[in-house]
Design goal:
Layout (H helix, E strand, L loop, with lengths): L5 E3 L4 E8 L25 E3 L20 E8 L7 E6 L6 H5 L5 E5 L8 H4 L2 E10 L1 H8 L16 E4 L6 E5 L3 E9 L4 E12 L2 E9 L2 E2 L5 E2 L3 E3 L4 E9 L2 E10 L9 E11 L12 E3 L15 E6 L27 E2 L2 E8 L7 E3 L4 E7 L12 E2 L1 E2 L11 E8 L4 E7 L2 H5 L3 E7 L7 H5 L14 E3 L1
Parallel strand pairs: 1-6, 7-10, 9-18, 20-22, 21-29
Antiparallel strand pairs: 2-4, 3-5, 5-6, 7-8, 10-16, 11-15, 11-17, 12-13, 12-14, 12-16, 17-18, 19-30, 22-27, 23-26, 23-28, 24-25, 24-27, 28-29
Length: 465
Amino acid sequence: MGGPIIRVRAGETFQVELLNVLTADDNTPAGTDINVAHMPNTTNLHTHGLHISGEGDGDNVFVSVPPLSSTTYTYVIPPNHMAGTFFYHPHHHGSLQLQFGGGAQGFIIVEDEPNSLPPDMLAMETVEVAMTYIEPAKLIAAQQKYNTDLWTLTGVRRNMLLTNGQTAPSKIVQAGKWTRFRLLFTSDGSLLSGLFPQSASGSASCEMHLLAKDGMYLPTMPRAIDRAYLAPGGRADVAIRCSGTGNVNLVGGVLGAGQDATRATSYVAMQLNVQASSAPVAPSLVQFRPYRPCYLADTSSVEPRSNFDLVLGTGNPNTKINGEFFVSPTISLNPTSPFVTGTVGQITLIQGTYVHVFHVHVNSYQIAELSPVIDNTYFQVGDWHDTFNAFVSQPAGSSKAVLKFWVDRFAGRHVVHCHMSQHEDEGMMNTLLVTGTEGATVNAAARLVDSTCYTAVADQGYVLL
């Protein structure tokens, strides 16, 4: 079962006191090699996807909270932060696999503002769906690096997909009514490939439309999709409308990164119990373009000031970025070619987009180029992500993704890593150096390409298409 849902609004500041009640038993520090499992009872907190500072007492994943201690985080949400689905989880290097892979997480919802979306969308019932794939054998292996006491199982060690802490829970939905589902998937490293509504009994069937990915609304929405694809740490907001009566299962296949989709194991994430309603059938959703915060304005026509290539490891060991393991938070991959606040940056991922899950803290990125990819309806050039895998088996040729982003407000060292937790613990993490003036926004430059991009809550809105 995940932690409590944290609900905030753009422009707010909130604090979290993190209490670590774990004991110091077997909390062995790393030796000379820090890229191994160590300090299983030391923790911290990461606000995954929020566009906030990664320094000081903000979203600083290099803070350590030892056993039987506490710390207080202060999170300052910018006044033009996009509403969306985000989440929090532990992020201590060395104990990430055991803690995050074991299901420690909770939603952060940045609430929609009045008039920011069409009325029918703002009026939808919203359901938070946290799906966690538990692999006992991996967790036992991780735990036994420290001791053999915590994980002791008898019988079959069966993998399971838990949804809000349950196996295949049921949700009643009214026929003809739209419901918004905020989907979150977490795992030690497996992918949730192709989640879709499958008719199970009676005359019930459902349609599904994509609204947002990784907490960021699509450039034009909604988008009819057949399936949703979630890497560990990935989110998707979908609107579902069902007809008839009976049961519809939300079904997805779980598989390892880089595996062929035919090897996926199918799970029912949730059962929708579709019931008849006396209310009129809700009309189809209107197409519209939401106004965007300036830090998420379209980058396609903007020449990046800084370019940097990242080679994601595919050899043995494959947990390197640009041939380097993590060394220290004070050492960056790009010391001679930093990104600069107030400008556009570009990252080109070379290799490994199919065997790793690429995640960047602080600034999300827009897909400028992508090949190969499993589904060009779900994954499109122009979409924004903060957590990405191409969901394809090893391609015959090369794999590549070109990602562009506005370097907004926050200087410092921004963490970049594979979001497969064992890979991160094994050293597939580093930082990207961002220089320039702290607090320098991209607002003026972004408004040259999108005059509707907003800098404050009051400026939000949309255009019907």
